[in-house]
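Render this sequence as a predicted structure.
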Amino acid sequence: MSQPRSSRRAAPVVPDEHEAPAPWGRQTWIALLVMGVLIAAVVASGLLIKHAIEPQVPPALANCATSTQIAPHEFIGPQPMCITATQTLQATITTTQGDIVIQLHPEVAPVTVNNFVVLATHGYYTGLVFWKAEDWVVQGGDPRGDGRGGPGYTLPEEPTVTPWDAGAVGMARVPGGPVNGSQFFIEKAAWPGAGPSSVYNRFGTVTSGMDKVQALSVSDAITSITIKVS
């Protein structure tokens, strides 16, 4: 004999009730605040680093533009004139040995000084090494780092009767060839013998940091050059 069916109905299946997300608490807001501060600090430090790396250009030289650049360290021709022979110009070359301050001589070599100023204010020399270091001279400004590089152009000769003593700054050249457009040298001591037999465009004199010049070797580099106009 069959049993009568139960009249009780099965309990309806109720979907799982997911717990509603709790409102953000104090710890969450603190974490977000800390994250925001860290992001702001990273951005600010990046801006400071960029500001420190980029050459600082004085207002008087703000309009100094380069000629057309065709490669990182190469231009289509000489740099446009943007200085005057009556300006007082000073260059601070920051190296891995320290700062070297140079009084520039636009009254003697205006084209050479202008060229150096334009290249320096556009960061051309940043990171370049002193590829030559001898007892009486150090030489840098070569993008190749082997004495054979340059900016893609040469400079005209600008003779001077100023003695080539310790602290003199001039432009390099291949004997019998043209004046290089970017390589410069600083004398640690007077030019050997009777002095140069060719024109080397003396365009500056070290006024501070000769001890840094004496310490430079082929492992040292230029980290920045700052130009001051007064």
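Summary. The longest helix spans residues 26-53. The longest strand covers residues 179-187.
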